Amino acid sequence: MDFTLSSDQEELRRAARDLAQAEFAPRAERWDRDATLLPDEQRRRLGELGYLGLTLPEEYGGSHTPLLHALLVIEEFAKACPAAAFAIFEACVGAARVIELLGTPEQRERWLPAVVAGDGTMAVAISEPDAGSAATDLQTEARVDGDELVLNGSKRWCSGAGHSELYLVYCRLSDERGASGIGAVLVEKGSPGLSFGPRQVHMGFRSVAHADIFFDDCRVPADHVIVPAGGFKRLFSAFSIERLGNATMSLAIAQAALDRSAAYVVEREQFGRPIADFQAIQLALADMVMRTEAARLLIWRAASNAGTGYPVTLETSVAKCYANETARDVAALAMELHGGYGYSPEYPIERMLRDSYGWLVAGGTPTMQRIRIVSEFLGRRVSQRG
Ligand SMILES: Cc1cc2nc3c(=O)[nH]c(=O)nc-3n(C[C@H](O)[C@H](O)[C@H](O)COP(=O)(O)OP(=O)(O)OC[C@H]3O[C@@H](n4cnc5c(N)ncnc54)[C@H](O)[C@@H]3O)c2cc1C
Question: Which of 81, 100, 120 is the last residue of a domain?
Answer without folding.
Answer: 120
